[in-house]
Amino acid sequence: MSHAHHSVPFSVSEGPKKDYIDELERQAGKEFQLHLDKLKAVPLESKASSTALAYKAENKRRKDWIIQKKLPLNESSFLLYLVDRAKGIGSSALSKISAAYQAANQGISAIGATFVSDVIKSKRREEVQCKKTVVEVTIQDVEKITKRAMDEITPARDRDALLAIFSFHVMLRASEAAEIRWEGVTQKDGMIEVHVEKAKNDQLRLGRSSFFNYKPGSDADILMCRWRIYSGGKCPYVFANLDGSGKLTKSSISALATKMLAAIGKPGATHHAFRRGGANHMRATGYSMEEIQARGRWRSLAGLQRYIKDVPRAQGCLHPQENGIGVEEDDEDFE
């Protein structure tokens, strides 16, 4: 499925940038209106479509807040807005607000940049201090969930186990899992292709494909066949309500994941633990960071690195079993 890459036809400039365009407009006149319209749009048209739309939304939200508070539309009001938003959002969202402001303006003053940096750093420090202990989810946990579904044979268990398998091996975010369609799941040559329609690293909004190895006749294959037959084409989305009335929402998927993980002895684990666990499983079994980044649709290696824990194999050290040091021949940990 293809999506056209639309331009962003609106003026986004503020402050000195806007004054500059206004003066140019007075000097050039209507003869150059098309040129002027292009200049008004290029600050965001130079960005990827998804980024441009996100920046437009952030700037509108900021302007609405400033107007509501009866403040001037300037850098000082932006700083007050940033501090106000910091009460309820994370450091990444604050960084996006700052980037959107700077795209519409002539950057930011040196003193203003210092305050912006300090607000974001302060929020990051707060996040680190408040961070909950991460509950790890492993391939063995996914196998436990799969076994429960195979033993109980109910549509709900089949769907939930399939969610665990996909979320772990494709490293799905809950928002991505909610958008997976049956037409986007293809089985061939011992692997599955999963088309993720709305991925964070999909700057052109074309969708991304992730692949994982998948044996025909395996428990995962049986679960997917059973759930597909039960669904009967009532809903185009893979993870749907049991009655086929519609797709599960992001929050419903998160709640299901938390419930199924608690049931196997992992209380406190969230849906995101599947994504983190899948990345660490790939790393521990010898995949490169670039391969994990591609399959898990991370925007950058730096973003992925926060998920990866230190293990010998990730640092080029072979597992003792692979060197045949004091082990039995039937060890299967790394086969």
Automatic annotation (TrEMBL):
This is Tyr recombinase domain-containing protein. Keywords: DNA recombination. It holds the Pfam family Phage_integrase. Transmembrane segments: none annotated. Gene3D superfamilies: Intergrase catalytic core. Residues 135-320 form the Tyr recombinase domain. InterPro entries: DNA_brk_join_enz, Integrase-like_cat_sf, Integrase_catalytic. PANTHER family: PROTEIN CBG21870 (PTHR33435:SF3), PROTEIN CBG21870-RELATED (PTHR33435). One of its GO terms (molecular function) is DNA binding. PROSITE patterns: TYR_RECOMBINASE (PS51898). The keyword rRNA processing does not apply. GO terms for biological process: DNA integration; DNA recombination. The keyword Flavoprotein does not apply. It comes from the Eukaryota.
